[in-house]
Amino acid sequence: MNFEVAKNENVKTKKSFISSLLKRSDISVIIATLFLILVFAITTESFLSSYNIFNVSRTASLYLFVALGQAIVIIIGGMNIALGAIGGICVVAFGYSVQVLGMPSWAAVIVAILVGGICGLLNGFVVVKLKLNSFVVTLASSFIFTGLVNGISKGYPYTKIPTSFTTIGREGFLGMPYLFWLMIVTLIIVWYVFKYTVIGRQILVTGGNEVAARMSGIKTNNIILLCHVLSGVFAGLAGVLWISRLGSAPPSTGGDWMIFSFAVAIIGGTALSGGEITALGLFAASFMIALINNGLIMMNVNVYFEQTFLGIIIMLAIFFESFRLKFNSYKKI
């Protein structure tokens, strides 16, 4: 009798553990990332080498900063189609400040991030004041910012970047790139803000139900404006880090950001309907996207099929997420 009771308790504990896991919006991407690591580790000999881990971590870190610029707008139920264009104009602002104006690197960083914030402010202002959909607004502004990028740079990259500035993008500490440690610190801050601060809670509530948030006294317009500004700031920061990695400031930067900014943000558990974000999910998703690119190259797979494999992984993640949501709905019934 006692044995049967103990057995039933163990079954209940296992079911409870599985249920708690499936309630997490980031569990699907975590499982997918671990699966990819296992597959590539088995199929390629040099995948787990320190050199390769260093490169994958560096790439994932850059993807993460780009994705934060998208996630902070998705969380309020919007999107920033102009994210890549903002990144491009920030890169040009940095390069122009250093190469043409002769400004020191630290001052150029401030200029680039300020430019990103201003671009985000313009997007947010139009969205809030004219009550327009963020997709339409940022689509239009992406053409404006891209035109400024091409007009200012005339299509030529800024190459006179101080060697000292590339340290953060190319060097590391304890076997991992500085970008990785910067990513970890940033994610801890993001986690803390959304879990323990008033402003973080207000952003989540606004994204979950803007009408209810407004009725509860939250100044939702200010929240939306703030998120667009932060999106621009993250785009500027990502652009600066991109320069540090490349050692130059090409105006083409940001051309492919929209694809993986949405991929990392959405696969990482940021709900398209708004109101949900997970730092651990973003971390896992950024590595997953970087792993796909790196693993396919190491397996000598035709790189032209990269987006096909990325689409398959995204689709599998979506299927698992759909299963998770249905499971949770069933449990509530």
UniProtKB/TrEMBL annotation:
Membrane-topology descriptor: Multi-pass membrane protein
Cell location: Cell membrane
Keyword Membrane: yes
TM spans (from-to): 27-49, 61-94, 106-128, 135-153, 173-194, 223-243, 255-272, 279-298, 304-323
Keywords (A to Z) from UniProt: Cell membrane, Membrane, Transmembrane, Transmembrane helix
Cellular component terms per the entry's GO annotation: plasma membrane
UniProt cross-references to PANTHER family, sorted A to Z: ABC TRANSPORTER PERMEASE PROTEIN YPHD-RELATED-RELATED, RIBOSE IMPORT PERMEASE PROTEIN RBSC
Name of protein: ABC transporter permease
Organism from which the protein derives: Clostridium thailandense
